[in-house]
Design brief:
By secondary structure, this protein is α/β, with parallel strands linked by helices. The chain has 15 helices and eight strands. It folds into two domains: 154 residues, NAD(P)-binding Rossmann-like Domain (Rossmann fold, 3-Layer(aba) Sandwich); 142 residues, N-(1-d-carboxylethyl)-l-norvaline Dehydrogenase, domain 2 (Orthogonal Bundle), CATH 1.10.1040.10. An eight-stranded mixed β-sheet has the order 3-2-1-4-5-6-7-8, with helices on both faces.
């Protein structure tokens, strides 16, 4: 049986990992990325531009930074797309932009699915991503074979834009929990607490969250889990969440914290590093605290000695 062909535009941190999963599953992947060599590194056949990708594959996946990048890519590939083709946007993008692109694609007979992904680099490597999809359920059913090697769960959320909406809501909670947990870890360190023990307490108490369960047990040993979402992209995602809430007429009372935290990380030079480094940014303005290693003296101890 001849291998099925899938197109892929955007072969960076997440796209490259997903493309590799498809190649390892026996598919031919035709890929394009503006960075030379990324297609080959993912095992894909390189294409010169998005139009060439669309001309060679019935299903085209996108993994791009935001709607400002997605829009020109989609408008470049639609004229070359095969009749009845399906474009699957795995990016974190504006739902308003997504629904406009869905309409444009429909006018030329192309299916357009918005498919937010969650799970990070580790899940992309293992093929255990969660995917939340908006658009025609029949089109989604037809491309199940493409998503199977990369996802453990696929949820059809509703009409066009619903997948990207669900993604933004999830990412906001991720941003809140990571920023708040980072602040708590720095405070715990300054208070002289054993952070491994503090995490054990939190993870069996009401403060438990994804960051305390899956991130900080590694971070407090010095492993920042490099390779995931950067602080710059986290800030972008929170901004997209705020735009979404504005369109929905819902006030946001909780976005200031993560915006301040990840904005701080950007301003202190951590913008292009994994968002887990936000704990270092908060530590920097807390007297140079690091939550791993043995060289930080408790603030309480210092104050006690000064007063004694």
């Amino acid at each position: 049986m001849e291998p099925r062909t899938v197109g892929f535009v955007g072969l960076g941190n997440m796209g490259g990992r997903m493309a590799r999963r498809l190649v390892d599953a026996g598919m031919t992947v035709v890929g394009h990325d503006p960075v030379a060599g990324r297609a080959e590194a993912a095992g894909a056949e390189p294409a010169a531009d998005p139009a060439e990708v669309a001309g060679r594959a019935q299903v085209v996946l996108l993994s791009l930074p935001d709607s400002h990048v997605v829009e020109p890519v989609v408008r470049a590939l639609l004229p070359a797309a095969k009749p009845g083709a399906t474009v699957v946007d795995l990016s974190t993008a504006s739902p308003a932009s997504t629904t406009a692109l869905h309409a444009e694609a429909g006018r030329v007979g192309v299916h357009y699915l918005d498919a937010g992904i969650s799970g990070g680099a580790a899940a992309a490597d293992k093929g255990t991503l969660t995917i939340m999809v908006g658009g025609d359920p029949g089109a989604l059913a037809d491309i199940g074979w493409v998503l199977e090697p990369i996802a453990a769960q696929v949820h059809h959320m509703g009409a066009s834009g619903a997948g990207h909406t669900a993604k933004l809501l999830n990412n906001f909670l991720n941003a809140v929990s990571l920023a708040a947990s980072a602040e708590v870890m720095v405070a715990g360190r300054r208070a002289g607490l054993d952070l491994a023990q503090l995490l054990e307490v939190i993870n069996h108490s009401s403060g438990v969250n994804f960051a305390t369960l899956n991130r900080f047990p590694r971070i407090v040993t010095g492993d920042y889990l490099e390779g995931g979402l950067t602080s710059r992209l986290m800030t972008k995602d929170v901004a997209l969440y705020l735009d979404l809430l504005g369109r929905l007429g819902v006030p946001s009372l909780n976005a200031a914290g993560p915006l301040a935290s990840f904005g701080l990380a950007e301003n202190l030079g951590y913008g292009d590093q994994i968002s887990n480094r936000v704990v270092d940014a908060i530590g920097d303005i807390s007297g140079g605290v690091r939550v791993h290693g043995d060289n930080i003296t408790s603030n309480i101890s210092n104050n006690s000695n000064a007063e004694g």
